[in-house]
Amino acid sequence: MSNKRKIAILGATGSIGLNALRVIRAHSDKLELVGIAGHARIEPLAEIAHELGVRNVAVYSKPETETHEDILKRFPLNTQIEYGAEGLSWLATLDEVDMVLISVVGTLAMQPCIDAIQADKMISLATKEILVMAGSYIMPLAEKHGTPLLPIDSEHNAIFQCLRGESTHEIEKVILTASGGRYFDTPIEELRTVTANEAIKHPNWNMGPKNSIDSSTMANKGLELIEAKWLFDLAPEQLDVVIQRQSIIHSMVQFKDGNLIAQLSPTNMSFAIQNCLLFPERHSPVDPPLDFSQSFSLDFASPDNERFPCLKLAIDSLKTGGGATTAFNAANELAVDAFIQNQIGFLDIPRIIELTLSEIEMTSLDSIDAILNVDRNAREISQTFIQKHAR
């Protein structure tokens, strides 16, 4: 890159955002942070702004106890701060921004992503829900604007790297790897007593509560299959999942001639994030790469549908098409939140999803309003079933 690439991060204080900051610090000769957004925590945003000289800030949920003037005092002089959903879209479309890293959780990321595409920004995408809910809308929009969507999820970034220089027409199938989570070999009967505090302790990755629980149910792998379908324009039958316990192989691509390409790196998100932020260039990593002077093993297994019904439900919704994947995402999100709040049990999560999918009316998703309507209806249905299954 001849000039510094100017980055805005939506979700700067989350795990993806914090790893992105490490990459930006390490490559300050090539990357410049010009905008940051967070949900409600002002102090971490102010610390980032002071350290890296950021003057554009968005806060989704303005603290009721502070005035705008009080908040401004905590930031460098001449900082502009905007609030709410409009603030996220403002940040994503600033003239000086070249690339928007989107790691805001859930549907909140949808509109800023659309606005960034229409503003012809490069996008590094970490929010699964955008394509799970609205891939049929987002991908044609990105193609129309010639907007690169660079995937940050380690699995999708792995596929992206495996396909670099390859023709997508030569793909036989894409194989996403999964760790199998915390309960890969726990007797199924014992899963009835699993608590949220236990489920969030992932064996390989340091993730937030929701993603860790999704990993333990393998709902996350279902969401990733749906996302991969849209990112790489694949048919459902071209997608597969294999358990790779060590999480060293992040995904693989098998081509029509039988050859297979895999991407390997340590269980650290900095590698995928750096690949996106510096694309198409490659530079020294911020974390140590794999050390092949140290022995390690690579173990594989097929996922068990009885143990991981969420994965099968996601695959079924992908094959159904229409609003099924939107409904799957909404039901899973609410069920996981109810589990974290101790309202339902661990095994109730797939039950809520299945019941919701059986009740939701599948309609044509020809607009964002139609997509959001399916999402809203699925949440209402899911909430009803959550109340019925409440402890």
Brief overview:
With 391 residues, the protein is of the alpha/beta class. The protein has 2 domains: 5-126, NAD(P)-binding Rossmann-like Domain (Rossmann fold, 3-Layer(aba) Sandwich); 157-388, Rna Polymerase Sigma Factor, Chain: A, CATH 1.10.1740. It is built from 15 helices and 12 strands.
Describe this structure in words.
- The chain is an alpha/beta fold.
- The protein has two domains: 122 residues, NAD(P)-binding Rossmann-like Domain (Rossmann fold), CATH 3.40.50; 232 residues, RNA polymerase sigma factor, region 2, helix turn helix motif (Rna Polymerase Sigma Factor, Chain: A, Orthogonal Bundle).
- 43% of the residues lie in helices and 16% in strands.
- It is built from 15 helices and twelve strands.
- The strands form two sheets. Strands 4-3-2-1-5-6-7 form a seven-stranded parallel sheet, sandwiched between helices. It has a five-stranded mixed sheet with strand order 11-10-8-9-12, covered by helices on one side.
- Helix 1 packs across helix 11, helix 10 packs parallel to helix 12 and helix 13 crosses helix 15.
- The protein is globular, with a radius of gyration of 21 Å.
- The mean pLDDT is 93.
